[in-house]
């Protein structure tokens, strides 16, 4: 591993999306630099995807892509996890996700990863 990659902060980007939008969202974050695994192997587009059921109730001011204001909605969604190396890559990936995701407010999380 090069010293440059070792020194760069690493983050895990986790997001949730309806299954119909997962590939579009992954393509967007990968184009922004997410999913590149540091090391000599040159691995790209690395991610973990698992299925589950998301739920939400849109509030009065919402403009939901799926469901209706005030009604509880349950949707088959995927949880996608990927690695981002560096603050800039992480920020670009989050912005790309927001642009590609069909929901008014996409659910996502960013975790800093410690290197031991």
Automatic annotation (TrEMBL):
<keyword id="KW-0732">Signal</keyword>
<protein>
    <recommendedName>
        <fullName>ATP phosphoribosyltransferase</fullName>
    </recommendedName>
</protein>
<dbReference type="InterPro" id="IPR036069">
    <property type="entry name" value="DUF34/NIF3_sf"/>
</dbReference>
<dbReference type="InterPro" id="IPR015867">
    <property type="entry name" value="N-reg_PII/ATP_PRibTrfase_C"/>
</dbReference>
<feature type="signal peptide">
    <location>
        <begin position="1"/>
        <end position="21"/>
    </location>
</feature>
């Amino acid at each position: 591993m090069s010293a440059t990659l070792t020194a760069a902060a690493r983050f895990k980007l986790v997001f949730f999306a309806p299954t119909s939008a997962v590939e579009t969202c992954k393509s967007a974050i990968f184009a922004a630099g997410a999913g590149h695994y540091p090391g000599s192997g040159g691995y790209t587009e690395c991610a973990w995807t698992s299925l589950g059921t998301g739920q939400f109730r849109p509030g009065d001011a919402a403009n939901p892509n799926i469901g209706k204001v005030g009604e509880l909605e349950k949707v088959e969604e995927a949880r996608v996890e990927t690695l981002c190396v560096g603050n800039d890559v992480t920020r670009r990936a989050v912005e790309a996700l927001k642009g590609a995701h069909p929901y008014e407010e996409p659910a996502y999380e960013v975790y800093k990863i410690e290197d031991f």
